[in-house]
Amino acid sequence: MQPIHKSEELLSKMASMLQSGQTIDDMSLMRYINDINKYFSGLEKNYALGIAYGLNKNIQKSIYYFELALQVPNGDYALGYLSIICNLGSTRQARELSARLATEYESKIFAKFAFQYSLFFADLKMMGVFMTQWIKLSLNEERMKLQEELKKASSALSKFRDMAGFSQPETEMLSGIIMDLIDDNNYQVLSVEYISDNRFDEPINSYMVTTNCSTASTLADMNMDLAFKFADHEEFLGKKFSVYIKGSDSDAGSEASSCQ
């Protein structure tokens, strides 16, 4: 049995840290850099440095080294790059990178992420583009389910938009404001959901955003900040909708941001 090379061991360790949500301080970063300089070379060295700087939350340097590593296309390096940005970068960065990689590589994983981030930003057109790519790269037995998923997501988003009285650009702007606020508070968006029903005296038209925050006071503050941000946009006044940022593992409640 061949011994594991030190470079493989180091990459495996950093991958495990990323998967478990760990980060490293500046002193640990320097130790990693020393080891990387010792055991890596060429494009693989740039890739390893991209991961190390990402774990240190130095996203700009991480991006720099990943871009160097991808001077020659490499699906594994691209996936590592996307993992760092999705976990430690901003939602906008993840959206842009996933869309780019889905275009550059014929990959079901990249198409899936690109669809997901298009949904987060309420971009109906790109949702369709990336879901079509995802379906094309999937097994026959998966395709019908994915087509239903696209139909369901597009229908829910369109119904929310129409009940609120938004144009499509206004809907995308609304989503962008929400995503940016969550990024500003250093949390991640996990999922979005539209709940619209006009069968009652008081119609329901809600946009629910689930994050990895589980602190009730922080969720309350984010929802309050969101209400103030909406108040700065005349195009939202008089529109019938509410937005609620919630945590994934708690029922911590706070007032939803709404315009009526």
Key descriptive features of the protein:
2 domains, Alpha-Beta Plaits, disordered C terminus, 4 strands, four-stranded mixed sheet, 260 residues, globular, alpha+beta
Q: What's the quick description here?
A:
It is built from eleven helices and four strands. The protein is α+β, with helices and mostly antiparallel strands. A hairpin with a 6-residue loop joins strand 1 (189-197) and strand 2.
Structure description:
The protein is of the alpha+beta class and 260 residues long. The protein folds into two domains: 6-89; 162-259, Cation efflux protein, cytoplasmic domain (Alpha-Beta Plaits), CATH 3.30.70. Helix content is 63%, strand content 10%. The protein is built from eleven helices and four strands. The chain is globular and about 70 Å long.
Mean residue pLDDT:
92
Give the C-level CATH assignment of the largest domain.
Alpha Beta
Radius of gyration: 21 Å
CATH architecture of the largest domain: 2-Layer Sandwich
Largest sheet: 4 strands, mixed
- Alpha-beta classification: alpha+beta
Low-confidence stretches: 250-260
In one word, what is the shape?
globular
Strand content: 5-15%
H/E element sequence: HHHHHHHHHHEEHEE
Helix content: 55-70%
User: What is the CATH homology-level superfamily of the largest domain?
Assistant: Cation efflux protein, cytoplasmic domain
Through-space gap between termini: 68 Å
Strand order of the largest sheet: 1-2-3-4
By DSSP, the count of extended strands is 4
